[in-house]
Recover the amino acids of this structure.
């Protein structure tokens, strides 16, 4: 199988690759959004704690 | 819980306490990630490259490798949420509440993926993006149930009562699960019947089946990873001024 025919997906490239692309986007979002939010929250809490100590 | 032996109930209490659970999640994370990649990579390679094209559907059928595992996950996560809801209602276990609410967006994501990839598969094969048949409609209701859980939880200020409300919603909504599963048998639908679960004689070739099963287990591991990340955030949100969060901040600084 050539690389070209792999990407062409027998003429169904749009349907197949859009499916995989949307899936990737949703899964990445659900994985990384909580990580980013947690880091933000921890930074805020650390700042608050520092202010409280002074 | 007098009928549970003391060492076991002590073990559960310790594991379910937020700081222990948080540390456990961190310890498990690298192993889960490695296992996930070990299943995902051969699953994708097998499904997109190795498996032959379908004799009727050509290469369009390769959407199956995400569509079916995502649809399975959409049911699996909802059942887990209902179980968590039951535990949360009966034993008032905080961790069960946290796991329930952390699962909802991930389940919604898989349901959305199942619907969209189904639509993208339906268009070239059935000639339509959408039909209001039993399978598709009940899966759409499942998406609304997931979104309902998240928004109900967000709408109630006191998180303990929010968790109770959400647990009840998760338990009530579980009636939709058998409806989705059996919809292709109970009603005449455009959606095809099961190909894999007839284990005695699956109507799918083994070279197509193996990548499908690899992807299904990979998606389960993805869920484990994502739900732990989400639960870590929720635990801190629940009790931002707890002692264990303070020591977490000191260790980071």
């Amino acid at each position: 199988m050539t690389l070209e025919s792999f990407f062409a997906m027998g003429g169904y490239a749009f349907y197949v690759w859009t499916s995989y692309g949307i899936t990737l986007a949703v899964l990445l979002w659900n994985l990384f959004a909580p990580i980013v939010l947690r880091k933000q929250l921890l930074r805020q809490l650390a700042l608050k704690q520092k202010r409280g100590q002074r | 819980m007098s009928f549970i032996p003391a060492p076991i109930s002590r073990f559960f209490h310790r594991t379910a306490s937020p700081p222990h659970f948080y540390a456990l999640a961190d310890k498990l994370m690298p192993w889960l990630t490695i296992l996930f990649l070990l299943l995902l990579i051969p699953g994708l390679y097998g499904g997109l490259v190795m498996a032959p094209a379908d004799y009727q559907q050509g290469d369009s059928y390769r959407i199956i490798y995400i569509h079916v595992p995502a649809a399975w996950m959409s049911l699996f996560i909802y059942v887990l949420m209902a179980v968590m809801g039951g535990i949360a209602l009966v034993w008032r276990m905080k961790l069960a509440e946290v796991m329930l609410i952390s699962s909802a967006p991930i389940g919604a994501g898989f349901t959305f993926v199942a619907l969209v990839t189904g639509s993208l598969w339906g268009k070239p094969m059935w000639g339509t993006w959408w039909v209001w048949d039993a399978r598709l409609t009940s899966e759409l209701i499942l998406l609304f149930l997931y979104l309902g859980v998240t928004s109900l939880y967000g709408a109630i200020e006191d998180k303990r009562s929010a968790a109770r409300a959400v647990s009840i919603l998760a338990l009530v909504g579980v009636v939709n699960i058998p409806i989705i599963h059996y919809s292709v048998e109970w009603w005449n639908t455009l959606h095809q019947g099961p190909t894999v679960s007839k284990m005695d004689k699956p109507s799918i070739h083994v070279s197509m089946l193996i990548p499908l099963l690899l992807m299904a287990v990979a998606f389960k591991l993805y869920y484990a990873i994502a739900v732990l990340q989400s639960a870590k955030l929720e635990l801190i949100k629940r009790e931002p001024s707890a002692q264990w969060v303070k020591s977490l901040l000191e260790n980071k600084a």
Chain B has a mean pLDDT of 91. The CA atoms of residues 122 and 128 of chain B lie 6 Å apart. Chain B touches chain A at residues 48-49, 53, 58-60, 62-63, 66-67, 70, 102, 105-106, 109, 112-113, 116-117, 120-121, 123-124, 222, 225-226, 229-230, 232-233, 236-237, 240, 245-246, 248-249, 252-253 (CB under 8 Å). Residues 26-192+199-252 of chain B form one domain.
